[in-house]
Design brief:
alpha/beta, eleven-stranded mixed sheet, two-stranded antiparallel sheet
Length: about 375
């Protein structure tokens, strides 16, 4: 029996309802159905060590990687008065024709993080893995967004939506198929990615681009391509928060974070104290399932993954979202990694391979 539990479209399984008591018990065993996807390079030599990020100081520098991958760094997709320019990078193999794009959203508890220089224990440095994914026929686009001290929720969601519109507006220039765009995030980035997938066509967010949140100099924000869609065809959320209100109730005895405090990252990004001064409407605005139930996820397939000993974000957050997606008939897959912590820290070599195999199988299935 594998140590990564895959709950897919055809699996008939039942996990315990998320609760504080259940959180103290590892998830029950579920038959894995990952298939035979492409394999990563030998994990004795992580991808992050094979692709070395070059030193650079100038914006929009280009660099070459193995596999004929070319990267362009520091492209500005939006400017905001009083805040650093919002930038993205593009990793691709030039002259390959329109290819699917994957927007990468970094983690960092909404208060820090770097899409290029962060590391994940299962694949090493982000920049090397971005290049590796690009070498497999995708245009990979890591993005920055406003952190909690630069803008309160839903600024982060609005920013990534603006980046997706920028990608569609520049699709021909960077060899992107605008009909095949996915989003992938870890931790806080996983929450943003899930929200992107769950808010396609939701007026609360789509109307904002017409009301001046983006593209209106009077508001201090300038971004192009407001006429483009921010919908995605696939969303991958690793170690993601999905329901702020349930974080503490679902936390296990081994959890190292308390979320219902004024100093928590969730309180900082909401701009109020979770559990006390935050209104239910404010908290609900960051609840992925709230928008799933409005039909906002009907055009997106989801891959969720979490460790069963995540000390920061309970795995039940992913379980809850998965259950809600399936009730709405949305294509969804859940991967539970036995005994792994946040970001899959502590995952075995076998588990790491399976997580990545599942990732590539999923994006191949839904993006091509």
């Amino acid at each position: 029996m594998t140590n990564v539990f895959s709950i897919g479209l055809t699996a008939l399984v039942c996990l315990a309802t998320a609760s504080a008591a259940a959180a103290q018990t590892p998830a029950p065993q579920v038959q894995t159905s990952t298939g035979k996807g492409p394999k990563m390079p030998d994990f004795e030599h992580p991808v992050g060590k094979q692709f070395t990020f070059p030193d650079f100081v100038s914006p929009q520098l280009k660099a070459q990687y193995p596999g004929n991958v070319e990267a362009t760094f520091g492209l500005t997709y939006a400017t905001i008065t009083g805040v650093r320019p919002l930038k993205l990078d593009v990793y691709r193999v030039p002259n390959m024709g329109p290819k699917p794009a994957i927007i990468f959203v970094h983690g960092g508890s909404y208060v820090n993080g770097d899409p290029k220089n962060d590391r994940n224990p299962i694949f090493g440095e982000n920049d090397g893995f971005m290049a590796y994914v690009a070498s497999r026929g995708y245009v990979v686009i890591p993005v920055t967004y406003r952190l909690a001290d630069e803008g309160k929720w839903p600024s982060q969601l609005e920013d990534v939506k603006a980046a997706i519109r920028w990608v569609r507006g520049n699709a021909a220039k960077y060899g992107v198929d605008p009909q095949r765009i996915g989003v992938w995030g870890e931790s806080a980035g996983g929450h943003i990615a899930a929200m992107i997938g769950a808010t396609c066509g939701i007026k609360e967010f789509d109307e904002q681009k017409d009301q001046g949140i983006y593209g209106n100099p009077a508001r201090g924000v300038q971004a192009k391509f407001a006429d483009q869609s921010s919908c995605v065809q696939a969303a991958v959320a690793w170690s993601a928060t999905t329901d702020f209100a349930q974080l503490d109730p679902q936390s296990a005895s081994f959890a190292r974070l308390v979320h219902n405090t004024p100093a928590s990252s969730q309180s900082r990004v909401l701009g109020c104290a979770l559990g006390t001064t935050c209104s239910s409407a404010t908290v609900e605005r960051a609840n992925v399932l709230h928008y799933v139930n409005q039909g906002g996820a009907s055009k997106t397939a989801f891959l969720l993954a979490a460790g069963t000993r995540d000390e920061a974000t309970p795995w039940q957050q992913s379980q809850e979202l998965y259950d809600g997606l399936r009730k709405r008939g949305v294509p969804a897959q859940l991967e539970l990694v036995r005994d792994a912590d946040h970001y899959f820290i502590g995952a075995s070599k076998e588990q790491s391979k399976e997580i990545l195999d599942t990732f590539f199988e999923f994006i191949q299935r839904y993006l091509g």
